[in-house]
C-alpha cells in the first residue's frame, strides 16, 4: 500500500503471531532501498475464569482455551497482606492454589505470556472457609437456674461459610446474699475512729462484709472506698477517718457467690482534733519596723477553728519578741468552715421519710462549706521590729481540741539609716603623702553598711570616697598639711552620724623653687630671685645657693631663717615638727671652712699685661682671718662638681652695705697667690726684653738710647718685676684672685623664710662670665630638687693687651702685633693703636678688630712711641707708660710700591758705590714653605704667584761684571694683598640660653686670605629666613620661636668681599617651654546625671611635645552654702615602649609579651610580630601601651617567643612613673636602655636572649575623658 505520511496503522492481525513489514521510498518510477522491520502481536487474553473448589487452606480455578502461540500462563494470588505468583504451562487449564489462610478473601488473576509480553488477564475473588472455634469458656450464666447442667454449642460464621461446631457442658453454682444489712449505727472513738454495728438477715450464707465509705465534708469524695471485713459478729472499729469530717458509710454481706446489696447510708462526723498547718504562709516587710503576715486556712481544719497564734522570733537566738492571739471569727472576712453530720443530706435537699432514720442528724446544722473559703487570705501586721534583723514568724490554728501544727517563715527586715557613727576611728600609717584610716562598724546594726569617707584640707572640703571595707588609704596628699577625716556609715541609701579625726602628714623634702631668675646687676654681682616652692612639704628651714662656673663650684651660700638661729624645733603654734625627732630638727650643712694651714711664705701679684709662660705650684691651703663658724660641717661633699686643684680667678672684693630686703654676699678681700716652691728649670715669670741698639741723637728722656735699634722685630721694652716686689695694677683692672685647692667660698646668712618672694645679691664675681646659679629649698627632712638658672655678668673694661711687638716692613711701614688681654672682661669690640712721632710730636691713631695692624705712611728712619688699648662695649682699657713700646723705621731701601692678592711690586735704590756698571739685580723672596729668585735689570720688579695675605722675606743684591761682592740689602718682610676667604668658618655649635635665644660660636676660616672684617649669618626655618652680620666669631640670636627647628650657615668676609663657601649647616632646636596658648575647642557632652565627657584639641602654640594635661573641675555643691569646690587630675593617653629585637632569637619570633605591674596586679599584653612596623637593622621596635593611670608607678618587662615559647628569658624591669597632675610634669626614667643579660647563651630551641627595652616616651593622639 502507498502511504503519503510517516506513520501507518495495520489491523486484522492474528494474536501471538510474527510479522515482517517492508518500507520503500518512491519517486516517480524510482524506489529506494527497502527497510524491513520485524514485530510480533500480543498473546490472546483469558476470557473466563471459574472457581472449582475452596476450603479453609486451598482453592482450585479453571480457564478457557485459545488459538495462537504463547509461552506459559501466569497466575497471581494475593490480598492486602500477602501475594503469590505462580507459573502454569500453556497446556494446563486448571490450577490448585494452597497455603491460604482460613476465613480470608483473596484476589486471583490469570494471563498468557509470550516473549515477556502479557495478554489480557481474567480475575475473581475467593473467600476461604473459617476455621474451627477454639478456647470456648462460659462468661455469664447468672440468669440460669442455680445447680443445673446445660450444653452449649459454638460455630464460627463468615459471609458465605460456617465452621464445624464446638460444644461444652455447664453446671450453675450458689447465689450471693439477697438482703442488705439493717440498723447500721456508728459511735465516735477518738478523733479518727468510728465503731460500726448492724443487723444481718439469715436467708443466705455469709462469709464476710464489705464496708464502703466516702468523705462528705469538708472535702467531698466522688467515689466510695471499700474495706473487706471477715467478722463473726456484725460489729467493727474503723480508724481510717480524718478528724472533724463527715462521712457516708454503707455495709453489705459477702459470700463465695458475691456481694449482696448495701445497707442505707450512715452520716456521721468524727471528733475534732488540733488542726493542720496553715497554708501559703508569707511575711512581707512594709518598712524597716513593720511586717504583714499572711496565710490561708489549713487544708485539714480538723474541726471548727477558734483562734490563730502569731509569734515573731529572732532567727538566730529563737527569742520571742512579739506574740499575737487572734479570734478566728473576728479576723475571718467570711464564715468559718465547719462540718456536721447532716451536711450531705442537706446539700441534696430534704430527705424522704423512708431515708430518715433515728440516726439521722437534725436538719438545723450547716451545710458543706464552700471551697472558696480556703482561698480567702488571712493577714495581720506585726510592728516594733528592728531594722535589718532576720525574724522567724510562726502561725498556728486552734480548735476545741487545742493548738495545731506550727507553720513558719523567715524574713529579713529592710535596711534603715544608721543610728550611730562608726566606732574606734583611728588614723595610722601616716606618711608624707598618705594616711591610713580604720574604724569599727556602728554598734546598732541597721543594714549592710558601706562607708563614705570625707577629706578636708586647710581650704575646706576636698573630696569624698565610698568603700565597703573598714579601712581606707588616702594617697596623693600634700606633705606637712593638716587634714580632717570624717567617716559616715551608709545603709538603705541613707547616711548616719559621722565620726571624725585629725591627721597631719609628715614633712618631706620640698619641691623645686619657682620662678628662679638671675639678673646681672653689674660686672661683679648678680641678683638671684625666686619664689618659695609650690609644694614646701614642710617648714622651709633653709635655702642653699650654689654659684658655679664651667661646672666648678665657686660659692656655697646657705640662707637660714631666724628660727634656725634659736635652734628650735617648734612650729609657729608651739608644736613639734611631725615625724622628726626633737634632737635632729636642724640638719647641719656640709661645708668646709678649714681650707688653709700656715701663712704663705711669700706672695707675688701679677699684672694683667704680664705673660705668664710657666708656673708650677704646690697645693696649699688658705686661712680665713676669722674663726670658723661653729655650725658648719667640715665634711663638705660636692660630688656633682669639679673643683680644680689650682684656680686662677679674679679677686672677690667685698661689697658695701646694700639697702633693701635683698641678701648680699660678703666675700673676703683679694688674697695673693701662695707659692711653696718653684720648680727648677721653669721660669715662674718669664719676660722677653729687647736687644740694645745704637742711640739716635734726637732721642729725649722718653726712652733710653740703649733700648732702640732699627731693622729688626722688637717686643715691648717693659722690664720684668723683681721676684720679691709687688706689681701694682690699675684700680679699674681686675686683680688676680687668690685660690686654694677646692677654693669654695662657704657662708651662712640669715633671711626671712616666711616671705613668698626671696632674692639674694651674689657679689665677688668676675666680669662677663657665665655663671650657673643653683637654688634648693630644704625642710627638716631633707633638701629638695635643684633649680638652675644661668646668667652672665655685665662687661667691664678689659685689662691691658700683652706681648705688644713690632716688625719693620719697609722704611715707611711697620707691623704691630699683640696678644689679647688676659682678662677681656667682655667681648673685645676693637683695638685702638695710638702712635706718637718722637721727632715731630705728630700723633696717629688706628682702629682694628685684629691683633695686628700694618702702619703705613710713616717717616723714614724715625722713632715712634706706640701703645695698644683693647675695648669692650663698656669702654677702653686703661693705659700707662708701662704700656708703651718704641719703634724706629729703617733707612730707605726696599719699598713695596703696590700689592694685590697674588702680586707685589717692589722698588729700591741702586748701591751708592756700585764699583762698576750694574749688570742685573737678583731678588730673593721666601717664606716658611717657598723660596724663589727673580732677576731684573732695573731697580723695580713685580713678583707674581704669591699666596694672598702671606708674609714673605725679600732681599736684593746687585751684580757687576765681577759679581755681587757679597753685598745684600736688609731683609724686607712684606705682606701680600688680601683676598676673599679661601675656606668657610667651621666648628659651628650653639648653646641655648632660653627657649627663644641661642648663643652660636664658630672658628674662623682656616684660610682667611686677609683680615676677617665680619661674618654673615643666614638663619632659615621652614617658612622664614634671616640675614645677620657680626664682626666676631660668635653671635647671640634672639626672638626665635620656642621648640622650633632652624638651620644656620656662616660666611667669612674680608675687605675684598665674602668667601665663596659657606660653613656646614648647623641644625638648631630651641628649648621647650610651657605652652603659650591654652587647649582649643574645649567641649563638654553630658552623658548622664553623673557623667560628663570632655574633649579638646592641643594648644596652637605647644612649645614642646605635650606630655600630659591637667583638668580642673570646679562646681558649687547645693546645700554647702555656695562653697566653690574643685578637683585636679592629670590625663595620660599612651606610653610608647621602645626595644631592640633579641640578638639570638633561636628561631622565628612569633610575638612579644609586654608585662606591666602596678605592684598589686600584673597585666600582660601580647604583641604579634606581624602587627609591628618593620624596621631596619639597628632600629627600635615600638609599641603604644594605653590605659595606664596617672600618678602611678609601673614596672615593665618584655619577653619574646618563638613556637617553642619564651624560654623563661626576659628583660630587666623598667620603672615608670606616669604623670600626676597634682605634682607637675611626669618623671622620666633616668635609666639607659636595658641590654641583654651578659653571658646569656642558647641552651635549646626554646631559649634565646631577651629584647633590649628602652625607656618609654609619652605622647598623645586624641583626648577624651569622662568625669563621674
Structure, explained:
It is elongated, with a radius of gyration of 67 Å. Strand 69 and strand 70 (about 1025-1030) form a beta hairpin. By secondary structure, the protein is mostly beta strands. The strands form 26 sheets. Strands 7, 8, 10, 11 and 12 form a 5-stranded antiparallel sheet that branches. Strands 17, 18, 20, 21 and 22 form a 5-stranded antiparallel sheet that branches. It has a 5-stranded mixed sheet with strand order 49-40-39-51-52. Mean pLDDT is about 75; it is low at about 345-365, about 565-740, about 1115-1125, about 1220-1250 and about 1255-1268. Helices cover about 0% and strands about 40% of the residues. It has 3 helices and 87 strands. About 25% of the residues are buried. InterPro entries: FN3_dom (IPR003961), FN3_sf (IPR036116), Ig-like_fold (IPR013783), RTP_Phos/Ushers (IPR050713). It holds the Pfam family fn3. This is Fibronectin type-III domain-containing protein.
